[in-house]
Design goal:
Length: 281
């Protein structure tokens, strides 16, 4: 039961109905015997600044930040970690001593999800250009030496903007989404919400892009197997679901907030149970 001493945490985004972060962190706090509670708040883009100041005024200890706020939330923080500054996106905020600090744990989560996937010397195509796409792009570029990282999406201008930023550290360019098949990428990363529950019958790329032997990583975790992953599996691709990145970034957030090791196995189990429950509804 919550008391006046209960530490409060939350996730903010739009939408947040799909999120299983409340289940993940509630399980984590319980596993560590902590007096803490976690909530989810839908925050429209035009109310982001008010929401951040409201959380600070009420005394929330921290929050996760999801689509579409990972870039703009940086304008409302007192300090930003170097990793988040390099990625240009924040997905974790910690409140301490009247100051709000921003971190990026998506990068760590992405690297954990991609463990075992050969990325050196490969052509990697990232679909999307928002905060999640930036995090994955810079995570890969800081830890591997791919042949090139291609940014694509429905709009070319923001894809070109991200590619220019990325080209400072790795070979990178932007291409129209309809030209992706001609490039024959070795790895495709979906960093858009396309295919996310409840709109589960959409895929972010034309199925003709998929071919035997490539790796397809979908950051969407609800459902656990998206339309894209089903198509990829049918085409003989290696598939990586979003749940490992979800749990990896959540574990890193837990450690930032609490200073204690995260109960990763319990968090992963909570995520799977929550996603299973949502699928059954």
């Amino acid at each position: 039961m919550s008391t006046s001493r209960t530490r409060l945490f939350c996730i903010i985004g739009d939408p947040v109905e799909h999120s299983v972060s409340p289940e993940i962190f509630t399980r984590a706090f319980s596993a560590r015997g902590m007096d803490a509670a976690y909530l989810a708040f839908r925050v429209p883009s035009e109310r982001l600044g008010e929401a951040i100041m409201g959380l600070k005024a009420i005394g929330f200890a921290g929050c996760n930040v999801t689509i579409p706020h990972k870039l703009r939330v940086m304008d409302h923080l007192d300090w930003i970690d170097e990793t988040a500054r390099v990625a240009g996106a924040v997905n974790v905020v910690k409140a301490e001593g009247g100051r709000l600090s921003g971190y990026n744990t998506d990068m760590k989560g992405a690297l954990l999800a991609l463990e075992g996937v050969q990325l050196n010397g490969k052509r990697i195509a990232i679909v999307g250009y928002g905060g999640a796409a930036r995090s994955v792009a810079f995570a890969i570029s800081s830890s591997y030496r791919p042949k090139e990282v291609v940014i694509t999406g429905r709009k070319l201008e923001p894809a070109e903007s991200l590619a220019r930023c990325l080209s400072r550290v790795i070979e990178s360019r932007a291409v129209p989404l309809e030209d992706l098949a001609e490039l024959e990428p070795d790895v495709i990363v979906n960093a858009t919400p396309l295919g996310m529950c409840p709109d589960m019958e959409r895929a972010p790329v034309d199925p003709r892009v998929l071919r035997n032997g490539m790796t397809v990583f979908d950051l969407v975790y609800n459902p656990m197997e998206t339309k894209l992953l089903k198509l990829a599996r049918g085409a003989g691709c290696r598939t990586v679901g979003g749940i490992e990145m979800l749990v990896g970034q959540a574990a890193a957030a837990f450690e930032i907030w609490t200073g204690e090791p995260a109960p990763v196995s319990e968090m992963r189990e909570a995520a799977k149970e929550a996603l299973g429950a949502k699928r059954a509804k």
